Amino acid sequence: MRNLLWPVTVVLLLAVLVGCLMMFSDEIGLVAAGQGRTKVQYLEDVDRSWPELIPTSAPQPSATVSETTHDFGMMDILTDGEYSFYIENTGTGDLELKKGETTCECTISSLEEGGFVKPGERVAVKLAWKTKTGNVEDYRETAEIRTNDRGNRTIKFVIKGKVRDYLMVFPPIVAFPDTSIETSPKETIVIASASKEQFNILDIESTSPHFAWKQNPASPESIRKLRDLSGYEDLEQAWELDLSLKEGMPLGRFFETITIHTNVENRETFPLKVHGRLTGGIEFFGPPQSFEQERWLVKMESVPKAIGKKVALNMFVRGYGKDIKPRVKSKYPEFLEVATQLVKSSDTFSQYRVEVSIPPGTPACNYIGSRTNEQGDPDVGRIILETDHPKEKELILLAAFVVRD
Amino acid sequence: MTASPFAEPRIFCLDYLLATPFFTRTGARLVWLLLSALLLSGCQPEATDDTDSDDTLELFLDSQAPFSGWDEPGPEFAILVSGEQHGYLEPCGCTERRKGGLARRDALVADLKLGHKWPLFGLDLGGLTDDRMSVQTEIKQAVAIDAMREMGYEAIAIGPEEMRFGPTHLFALSAVEDPPALVSANLNLFDQQDVPRAWRMVEQGNRKIGITSVYGKRSSLKASHEDITWKEPADVLDSVMQNLQQTDLNILLSHAHFEETEELIKQFPQFDLVVCTGGGDAPATDPRWIGNSMVLQVGHKGMHVGVVGYFGDQDPKLRYQLIELNEAWEPTERMQKRIELYQDTLRERDVISGLYEQARSHPEGATFVGSEKCGSCHKRSYRKWLESKHSKATAMVIKEKHVFDPECITCHSTGWRQQEVLPWKSGFQNIEKTPHLVGNGCENCHGPGSLHVEAEEAETEPNYRNVMSLDRQSKRDNFCTQKCHDLDNSPNFDFSKYWPQIQHPWKD
Description:
The complex is a heterodimer. Chain A is mainly β. Chain A has helices at residues 2-32, 39-48, 220-230; strands at 63-65, 69-76, 80-89, 95-102, 106-110, 116-117, 122-130, 138-147, 154-164, 167-170, 173-180, 186-193, 201-206, 211-217, 237-245, 252-262, 269-279, 282-285, 291-292, 297-304, 309-318, 327-332, 337-345, 349-358, 365-372, 378-386, 394-404. Chain B is 35% helix and 15% strand. Chain B is built from 21 helices and 16 strands. Chain B has helices spanning 14-19, 25-41, 57-63, 102-115, 135-151, 160-163, 167-174, 217-222, 233-243, 258-267, 333-348, 351-357, 371-375, 379-387, 393-399, 406-409, 443-446, 450-458, 463-466, 477-483, 495-502; strands at residues 77-82, 120-124, 153-156, 181-182, 187-189, 199-204, 207-215, 228-230, 249-255, 273-276, 288-290, 293-296, 304-310, 318-324, 416-417, 422-423. Chain B has a six-stranded mixed sheet. In chain B, strand 11 and strand 12 form a beta hairpin. Classes of the chains: A mainly beta, B alpha/beta. At the A-B interface, helix 1, helix 2, strand 8, strand 9 and strand 11 of A face helix 1, helix 2, helix 3, helix 5 and helix 7 of B.
């Protein structure tokens, strides 16, 4: 018997240890994943927020509500709203209410924790919400009340409506994506108001010296069209701003702001983002996983020697109506293969297909950029195309890859 | 036989152990008592009460569990519906009420595919990214699409956020052969036929599902481009429907608000399932019906997704369940790895330095000097700052491995235009180059301090001596909420409770 005591003791201790680990394994796993509050903690919080049920042998409460949804119609932005719903206890036992979950812009401003509603009494549940987000379309927020009524454990109140800005600007963000200065880029911005008072643009400021604009009152026809497109039938007045980018604006991305000063209350200043990327007359595009547009880098990464690899790009030429005849001037390393083909052409735009390939059978090599060349630059493949374009005579594509056995 | 404890030590020898005092009868009895107590403590009969076991909270919550009644028998296939993600690859919010995120969505996918064993594909309404046209936005779009591919998405509609990338970017996306495919019936790039494709056919078992999408009128006011042709949806859907006649299910992804979508459905009742924009923070849990068309809204920021079950010849043919992606959904490892890869990409592409290249000088003409410099004179205030969470803001994002993410650094460092997610010229760049600007520092509220420091050190320019003090107006919640404590990241912000933690009413 003594011979068995020790091994049995060890087995029992191990069983207790494993049991403890299993109890807390969820928590250990999630904490290891760096999630902060664990699922166990979340569910415990959920449990604590529910009122306890009254034994069935005792008088039971009954939560009755006449409405659970309030539609506030249209509200102006940056205003606060309040509405009271009512919960009546039509049962015979005390009704306990606790606050449940609410959405971000909604709070339950009147409900005392631990409060009980006696039979026959009713309590107001006041919801407060803010229209800060500028969501001018559907606004929908909810607040949940949890009860000890067996037949109605949770009551969800809904506040909904539409939120409108004092000023409506179309487009709300002015975008000049992949825009060539050759095309004299411009955008018409419409600033509209539902106000019946005369609305004026007092001043316009820009963070960029390369913007120019002309301001004109929108015609009645434009306003009618705007009402139809926007769905805002009460638009009364609008201004049009023709914004253009001037010559001399540096190439590359820009994040600028135009500040519009108006006489509209609560919208005396209105910042409008103007973002974009100014490119030369020629631009390459490829699948995001295979082409990095900022550097014109073809990413072929790991290439099996026996199979090789091909990446197809699109090249767009803007503001020049003739065939620029792109052709290979030089390649590094030499084994890279490049083919170009005109796909479509118009007076102001041409599209080419450019294929960059590593043929099957290429010996193993490394041009991923992990080493540097004699000039101290990352050692990647480089393709120089020459063209008949009047300004962009040479185009440089980079290629990063490793050919492996 | 009793072995002598003074014999040759054989620590792990059973005889030796059994002969030690510990393993006398008394010791053994104590061990057994302890083990018995531990085991019995787990074996207590459950306390009974007369609340009736049928009415426990657990049972109630079980009855509210998603897909109640769907498994008897289950749907022929399920459709995961999402939209208007607006750049939220991870759950919305920094600290509280976090909902959404691709990793939780993938947990739902795993539950549907592996748990319920339902065939599944996904559809997205578009609006994948935020409204900034930065490199980060492009990377996010690529990450989101790759994640959707992994989750089995078949089609993505186009929203204003996609439009802002421009026609050439959309053209490149349209050329990708692997799903999800970009689909739009009434948008056309560079006047090229079927670019993007106007409709898509998906097969599930022996069922054919037709999918198309439209870009609504109000959406067209939000973003448009001269090389992207927009047509009235009603004018193009006729020809699309010619291709979707031999289908079992027709789906319309309408990137338009409900009223406009409703008009379309009345003209084209052939659509069994329609998804449109809207729903806000709390989309409706029940679908709307317009005739025989089920109409859904799944809200924004990826906080909710919809699951539609197709029950074939049963009545009803379609059932709907809205899922809130809260903390009960454990993130999947594969999707967490994608998010980590996304953060790695931000680091490798040095996105923050890229933003730095476009950075503007602060309009006050001063540069950021760092809180420690402030503390050389304002010692008490500096000590208060060091004790606050503001000083640890950068350390927090380092710990979460988000220190290369502009969307985090904008508030978790010093010298950025917080809501625009752009640095000032002298703002925080990285730990190596700008170590003095870690933490959410003094100058984020008080403005850059270089001119003030010069004035103090040279005892000149009296105007700059007082320029740093903030007036009463700034000690209000909208000053804080307009910068960092916005609804997304600080939904429970209460100025009266937060202010005492940083209040520093001293000049020193």
